[in-house]
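Table S5 (text form). Sequence records supplied for joint modeling of the two-component complex.
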Amino acid sequence: MKSSAKGDVLNVSHDYRYQKMGYYVSMHAELGGNPVTPRCSDILDTHRNPLLMMRAVKAGIPCLPYTLISRYERNVALPALCFAVNPYTCNSVTAVKSESKMLRTMKSLSVNNRYPVSVQPLIGDVREAVQVFGETDVPEARDIARKFYDEFRVPIGKLIVQIVDGEARLSHFEPVQKKEVDWGLVREKVRTLRVRTLRAHATSAHAI
Amino acid sequence: MKIGCFVETYCFHLKDEAQALELFKATAEARGHEFEFIYKKDMNRIPEFDAIFIRANTDPMNTAYVVSRLADSLGKVVIDDPHSIRTCSSKVVLHGLFEQNSIPSPRSRLFAGDYGRENLDRLFEYLQFPIVVKAPYTKFSSHVEKAHDEKEFREITARYLKNATPIVLQQFMPTAFDWRVGVLDNRVLYLCKYTMPRGGWKIRAEVDGRQVWGDTIPIFRKNIPKKLEEIAIKVSKCVGDGLYGLDVKEVDGEYYVIEINDNPSFYHGQEDAKDKDLYEKIIDRLTSGRQVKPGTYKISESQAP
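The corresponding structure-token record, covering 513 residues in total, follows.
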């Protein structure tokens, strides 16, 4: 954070939530006028479910429909998958199969009606896919992980997908815990990117 | 046209603020538009509206940011737009904006917790005690405190750094009032003086354990000092062509910008006391069909979804 270095910045973190260090590093780079991956606006979009869904749909990522509710409602179709739409969200994915659980879930995820909650139909197997630079170990989610990284450029994060009729659909994005990340793979990816960038610079310098 | 005004219940708690909101609605309707107050429960209905006017507190942390980004992405005219929210909500971003655009402002430094002797001495010499300590995200003078000596400085900064890094340190500039310059579409919309309450140094201060606000003195916008107008317009052009409220200090005929706020407050009988056409101008901007454009200071922005 003290660095005033100029140039492209790759910000690698397991947690980019607003006001966390992962976010501030990108903000600091942007303030210095440096192109940074990921950008703050992309971080904010990925961490708010309706914004994530809207962009993902436009990017051709298969998604599930969502609705936003701000307090407990009786007419929500169950079973449902609920996500907090607040900036601190971490591990908020909640499967709800009964009215009584819906009441409790709404109270908790909305932080007592302060924030809306995104509700999606629960129609498939829910899987968590940790994506690293667009790659994941979950075979069904590989295509989504690649498209997600192409669109949002967030190097590390957890994709919540539902497998419906053998096909994955994106439901949500969340930060990962440090221990969930294959840091060996991260280092390898960063090394590859570094080599590619150096080669690109060398080529453009040669062309000049 | 159909305007959705995004509010939260607290927007109606104060009588003057509620009256101003009703005046926005009455003005829009008198001009042949529909105007509806919308809440969190109505977020799925954003596509129904032609324009969204956000009156709930904005910050990337709040639901208002999600509303703004959704509406902006759908091509609606939205005040406040997401870029303005992201720029104005952070004192750290504003510090960079002022520095890079040579905006006259009190001496400021970012502080990330380097308590080394050499760094502290340099900071204290540059800023001089008392030093104003600001958290990056403050509203209505909250999370802004004054450190009179090193002990207080260490105590306040350590407390603020627990929640955010970096924070802003600023030279203390005592004045009896702050100019509030309302700007819309890079033109002055209204003008006020926000006075400091007796015994306080911020427009909202704690005096004898009570929260008190200073008085608002409205002034016709045509009477704005030329130099103040030039600075206000210059700053607004850096952010965008939306709606802003600038806080500016005047010392010996020189002007120093403290901050530019998106989502400036409107209390009936205060900001609107002289230039009563501000309601019409804001409604006309919302129904102009022109989306708010980011200004010259561009923090990196994603493509609209």
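Note: Residues 67-121 of chain A form one domain.
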